[in-house]
């Protein structure tokens, strides 16, 4: 007996999806017809799972170090460093805006 899983787009929650090839490790990829977003249903690498980047930001704001974060989330410390570098570009990202509000510059 086959069981079917209803897959929805993680970006817009639409059910109008088409198959969009496979990843390098053979996992099926999907593309949403509504928002044209592409995603995998099952991620092999923990660092790419939804919510990991937000957890890195949260733990950084709670004064956790890079090695603490990588140990807690069970991902490589290079991934944590790359995520922090990507989020610290010129105040455009959410982490920079949060830090600016939490620690305003003193004159």
Automatic annotation (TrEMBL):
Absolutely required for transposition of IS1. It comes from Vecturithrix granuli. InterPro entries: InsA_HTH_dom, InsA_N_dom_Znf, IS1_transposase_InsA. This is Insertion element protein. GO terms for biological process: DNA transposition. Residues 6-36 form the InsA N-terminal zinc ribbon domain. Belongs to the IS1 elements InsA family. Residues 43-86 form the Insertion element IS1 protein InsA helix-turn-helix domain. Keywords: DNA recombination, Transposition.
